[in-house]
Every structure is written in C-alpha cells, then in structure tokens.
Amino acid sequence: MSRPKTLRKVVAPPNFKGYKPYGTHAGTRDSVELLYEEYEAIKLADYDLMNHLEASKLMGISRPTFARIYETARRKIAKAFVEAIEIKTVYGDALLDKHWYVCDDCQTRFTIPKTIEEHQCPLCKSEQIELLNT
C-alpha cells in the first residue's frame, strides 16, 4: 500500500480556467487536465526561474516529487500543443496559501482579507462568488 499524498502548497490558483487552441476545426475533442500543483511547478521553474530545490521547498515537497510534477506538467502541455487540444485547470492535490474565491459573474479570482466582513467581488461588486479551496 502506498503512502497518502501530501498536499502541495500553491501560492495562488491559475488566473484562467483553461486554454483552447485557436484556428482548429476539429470540433469537441479530449482535453488535458492541468492540476494546480502542475501549474505551480511550471510557474516556479519556468516563469519565476527557480531551481527545483528552491521551488520544492516553497511547495512543501521533496525535490524528486517536484521534478515528477514538473515533468508531468510539461508532457501535458506538449501533448495539448501538438494535438491541438484544450487545457483545463483542475484543483488536484493542492493546498492554497489563502482562501481564494472566483466571481461567477466576471470570473475574477481574489482573496478576502480577514479585516473585511462582506463577501463580494472587488471588481464588479457581485455577491455571486465561489470558494476555490474545496
């Protein structure tokens, strides 16, 4: 029996729900599910230019685990590019740093400071918001 997975710390969720290829006429095809922790690994290694050891410490996981997550994310993105299929982000085994919300009206993702009691979108003031860390 394998060990239970530890949750991977993610500072912020992706600012998108997914990506679709532009200019293909293939209709509805399969999609690739990019987990939040895979997105975080790509962001830390390729965008923030951290080495694997620094990034693994930030995510609260071992360096080999980070390397496996990063490799899986790269393969999924490569598959989506080559096969021209959609990429969707899904929660996975992530532990978000704070409580993150998404507005159902304008799709803004945000946190609410503990000093603010009303729960509404800071952009459009809608009260139709949904907690992402579930």
UniProtKB/TrEMBL annotation:
Keywords: DNA-binding. Coiled coil: none annotated. The keyword Zinc does not apply. Belongs to the UPF0251 family. The lineage of its organism: Bacteria, Pseudomonadati, Bacteroidota, Flavobacteriia, Flavobacteriales. It comes from the Bacteria. This is DUF134 domain-containing protein. The keyword Transport does not apply. It comes from Maribacter polysiphoniae. GO terms for molecular function: DNA binding. InterPro entries: UPF0251.
